[in-house]
Design goal:
Helix content is 72%, strand content 3%. It has 326 residues and is mainly α. Helix 4 (36-51) runs antiparallel to helix 5 (58-88) and helix 8 (146-193) crosses helix 13.
Length: 326
């Protein structure tokens, strides 16, 4: 019975989620070896440097961007297939596959990075929190006040729950290691070249559009998991979480990020998103939620509690599906 549970995709994912939550990304390993996502980044940077030629027409740059994404996704999916084949025939191969899958989940690392912002406030005030938040957001930390730093940390926890935890889990369930690796490669490409500036607007269009599509369902599932988490977290408001999501998510400039952000904002009685500054340029966005915009360090800790409960809700949902399939 136990072996049957763990040999299916849902059971392997359960174990991967547990491994990631308990171990995360051990520095002793990844200080010596390049993380797979780092390798994806190097491949994308290498391709972008050679293919993204500003002298080419907009149409040609779009075609080259499509070519790079197609090459990246096919290579990542093939690597995932090779890894699956390599461990499938081994004794306890399901355990090895779970360990591989856990590398591409971000529960522990995301929790630790966001918690570091709250710790920064306690150890060195606003200066310490700004240093910590600069590791996880692209905004200029020196232009963020206390509330801005806190909102940035909470927004990171919300949005990255979707594309760092739920989406990888979703694509693993749908397509195994090939789907998981292809998704992580695409998400890395979007973070590197999927920007709306002059350099990447055309070349990165394919990466940005495909990433939006790949995250469409996971983003909405993430909101539902935050609703479930707010049902059991003391002080959270599940009704307002649901209400804020339906009211505000569609107003976000991203077709996906607004769903988990609005769900968290409503659950915690906050306002998130709004106008933000990236590289000296102001990005105008709608507010998610109608609570306090003056977030504080305690709100970061509340958001992390909600995040933990949402991760547990995901684990229980996957475990239930594994039991039903045994």
């Amino acid at each position: 019975m136990a072996e049957a549970f763990f040999t299916g995709a849902s059971g392997i994912l359960c174990l991967a989620l547990l491994l990631d939550a308990l171990v995360g990304d051990p520095p002793r390993i990844w200080n010596r070896l390049p993380h797979p996502v780092v390798l994806f980044g190097r491949a994308i940077g290498w391709g972008e440097e050679r293919l993204n030629d500003a002298a080419q027409s907009e149409a040609e740059r779009r075609r080259r961007g499509v070519f790079l994404v197609a090459l990246l996704l096919s290579g990542a999916a093939f690597a995932g297939w090779l890894l699956h084949r390599a461990v499938a025939g081994l004794p306890y191969g399901w355990l090895l596959e779970a360990a591989i899958a856990s590398v591409f989940l971000a529960q522990r690392s995301l929790y630790d990075h966001v918690r570091a912002v709250a710790i920064g406030f306690g150890e060195d005030g606003l200066a310490g929190a700004r240093r910590a938040v600069s590791m996880i957001v692209g905004r200029d930390p020196e232009r963020l006040d206390e509330a801005g730093v806190c909102r940035a940390a909470i927004e990171t926890a919300a949005e990255n729950f979707s594309d760092g935890v739920v989406a990888p889990a979703f694509w693993y369930l749908l397509a195994g290691l090939p789907g998981l690796l292809a998704y992580k490669a695409l998400n890395t490409a979007d973070s590197m070249i999927g920007h709306r500036n002059a350099r990447y607007r055309d070349f990165g269009r394919a990466a940005a559009r495909l990433d939006d599509l790949a995250n469409f369902l996971p983003a909405r599932l993430s909101a539902a998991l935050f609703w479930a988490a707010s049902l059991v977290l003391t002080g959270a408001d599940p009704a307002e979480s649901y209400k804020a999501t339906l009211r505000d998510a569609g107003k976000h400039r991203s077709p996906n990020a607004g769903w988990p952000e609005a769900a968290v904002a409503g659950a915690l009685g906050l306002r998130l998103a709004g106008a933000r500054i990236y590289g000296g340029e102001t990005v105008e966005d709608a507010w998610m939620g109608d609570g306090r915009s003056e977030a504080n360090p305690d709100d970061i800790l509340r958001a992390l509690s909600l995040f933990r409960h949402a991760c547990l809700a995901l684990l229980l949902a996957v475990a239930l599906s594994a039991l039903l399939l045994v």
